[in-house]
Amino acid sequence: MNNLKFDFPVIRKTYKEVEERNLKLYIFEPKVNQKDRPAILFFNGGSFKKEPKTPVQFQHQADYFSSKGMVAICVDYRNGSDEGFLPTQAIYDVKSAVRYVRRNSSDFGVDPNKIVVCGSSAGGYITVSSIMFENLNDDNEYDNQNTDHIPNFLIIFAAGMDGVDIMKRRYPQLLDNATELSPIHNIKKCLPTTLWLCGTGDDLYEQNIDFIKLMKQEGNNITLKTFEGMEHGFFNYGRHQNEYFHITKLEIEKYLKSMKVI
């Protein structure tokens, strides 16, 4: 993962060293150098597979939002290519990445109260889980009650919220604890203001609708945007002649403007 090739200039910064891995932030700097800029951290999908997708997945979104004055960051985290990988490790890494950016916000020129996290698919599962499950933590500098890892805003592209199903299919060694790792089995008010994007043709559509309904009943502020007939990953650069890449990036921009993030 350390030799990733981006189509745009990036600054590479290690945010965590663990199990012989230097986990990196790939930073897209805005051309205008200002203080107290908003930041957006992207967590790619497809990461539970043995040959996972990489942080490059979101490079075009990152480039776009850096052009809007945001410090945009594609985050490397432990994944299916790592020996003995478990999704709990990826959840730890989400927390570590957000903490690192907030802890070093002055060095990044970032407003620590304008940190946005965006996750897709597996990246959506781990980002939601990082907020919901306070006991999952491998950073000894922080106790589990610390909230530095919670972003101010959350953006999700269709993500599996049934941890029991995920563990049954991929990580049977975690089945005994699967309910504790399943967002849909732990409904509560906990998420920051959230934008959720999902195609109606996505296999996860009904599950996402059920999760959002239950979470809104508990007082979570979630805005749902659906895309008729669209499949899992429809928003990725290179699909549908980039029509939905452009549509979804503009939806995100509109949302962030409405929240006065940008």
Descriptive notes:
- The protein has 262 residues and is of the alpha/beta class.
- It has one domain: Rossmann fold, CATH 3.40.50.
- The protein has helices at 59-66, 87-103, 105-108, 122-132, 163-170, 205-217, 243-258, and strands spanning 11-18, 21-28, 37-43, 71-75, 110-120, 153-157, 193-199, 222-227.
- Helix 1 (59-66) links the parallel strand 3 (37-43) and strand 4 (71-75).
- Helix 2 crosses helix 4 (122-132).
- The model has no long low-confidence stretch (mean pLDDT 96).
List keywords for this structure.
262 residues; alpha/beta; Rossmann fold; eight-stranded mixed β-sheet; 8 strands; 29% helix; globular
> What letter string, H or E per element, gives the SSE order?
EEEHEHHEHEHEHEH
CATH first level = Alpha Beta
How would you sum up the major sheet? 8 strands, mixed
Structural class call reads alpha/beta
User: What's the rounded overall pLDDT mean?
Assistant: 96
Measured as a percent range, the helix fraction is 25-40%
The tally of strands reads 8
CATH architecture term: 3-Layer(aba) Sandwich
CATH superfamily: Alpha/Beta hydrolase fold, catalytic domain
